[in-house]
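Data card: per-record layout.
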Amino acid sequence: MIQFSDVELMRGGEALFSSASLQIAPGDKVAVIGANGAGKSSLFQLLLGRLGADLGTVHLPAQWRIAHMRQETPALDRSAVDHVLDGLQEWRALQQAIEQAEAGADDAQLARLHGQMDDMQGYQVQHEAEIILLGLGFAPTDLQRPVADFSGGWRVRLNLAQTLIQRSDLLLLDEPTNHLDLETVHWLQSWLVQYQGTLLVISHDRDFLDAVADRVLSFEHRQLTLYSGNFSSFERQRAERLAQQQVAFEKQETRRAEMERFVERFRYKATKARQAQSRLKALERMTLDAPARADSPFHFRFTTSDKVSQPLIRLTDAALGYGETTVLSELQLSLYPGMRIGLLGRNGAGKSTLIRHLAGDLAVQRGDSECGAHYYPGYFAQHQVDALDAEASPLTHLQRLAPDAREQVLRNFLGGFNFQGAMADDPVKLFSGGEKARLALAIIAWQRPNLLLLDEPTNHLDMQMRAALAEALQAYEGVVIVVSHDRFLMESTVDEFWLVADGTVQPFAGDLNDYLQQLSAPEPSSGSTPTGSTADRKAAKREAAERRRQLAPLKKAAEKAALQAEQAQARLEAINQTLADAALYDDSRKQELQQQLQAQAEAQQALAAAEAEWMAAEEALESAGQVTTD
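The structure for this 630-residue chain is written out next.
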């Protein structure tokens, strides 16, 4: 059992939480929720023993084995499946001991070690690792690929797989659904439901928590509150508690006002002085209940342009892809004002390819794509977040878009995304991933697009921001197309689904539950999955080597394009530093300012072109990988 007794944890001289007393029983599955920066990750560090409590005590059973998901993975030469198996340190040590006993021909020692391996079910772990990797979206031919071949998001999946395979009594998962698609989240959810140990999971995905958790640990105003039930139950309980708290607060305020009136009236009257002093002391001792209030700091809307085309865009017999590789073909699609679409389909099926075309970043290979005269897309994706100017502030980003707008108007707008006060002037390089994502959304909202293209917009966003985003999308009058693993966002903001599969896009006749019911956890087949035999491993390595040979030219092109984008970004940053000089805005330097603004616009166009080429190269590489896998 995990037991907290009057625990206080400080950071930067302030309490993350205090007076925390709670118990988590073996087998409990606990959702850990709270705003970004509330202290959720610090709580995990406390449980791991990497932080000590400033006050109080934390007790965990001494014999418990703890598995904790790492967030970063270096570029390793080890294969994906070996990296996962490295999570089983006891198994690795036993495997090495068996190899040494075999080399020394120590039959007695070998028999004992094989008995230990059998007791720990060690002969099944290779198969278990393959099952987990396939469940997390890896292809059978990926299993022998080196870790270094995978992008950052896929390495996070490898870390997750390494964590899941560990024999643990306590499993700590920090945002495990980030970088996963809808299908993989569904698989992970099913795996965690079957997990026998104690689980603490930090997540902002409501539906995921509803399915997995049976208790909720909530960070609320620097307090830890433990609720029974899943996330939906937590929301009901919290709403009831806040309502009761509001009633208590109002009663207390009424009582306080009565006491203050009595004190003011009688404190100087001899006959009432003692009673007045008594009430004065009671006022000083009175502990106010915090009033229940809507405490979300986010209040924003997406507005659309005044003019709109009918349709916004029409694709006829269109094919999309990269170079000579076609990802989607025979597309017959039209977007009309008011459409709200959720894109479904497995990773690599072409969802991002379609969105990039609609955003204007990718031309058709063949067929027709006609945009209306008033076609103004707003595109959110992770690479848009990464392209923010690290040295510029949120206010500067908007001033570049609207140099004639009054500063207070821009500050008020940014305040709706919780960039308030000095934070609106802080450089982006100081921001967290969630704060950068909020700024990218703010920039899109300012430009008033009539088509919102959102590719996994909720990564790194906390629940309050996710709820605000859903509310803003519900009120938005333009066209919405969303790719997201967040089921709450999808279900609350879209009216129809399109399925991207088998190289094309078709309407999906059903809702999100229907789609999820069609999914099943992939099982490795004897014909496609590497087994533990030497011959099969050699064959898999030959296949992986041939695959790397085929992908080498595309990988080289992607690296070259990335370098060009990096150089373009450096040129733009140099211009931005010049524009950051307040003296440049003096009336006597108007011509120089105009030249710099023109240079900035040209540099932005060059960067956009370089990034488009880079993304095309990366997606061509990914698509080619999918083709060779298939």
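Known properties of this structure: The two ends are 47 Å apart (CA to CA). Confidence is low (pLDDT under 50) at residues 288-294, 521-534, 626-630.

See the next section for split statistics.
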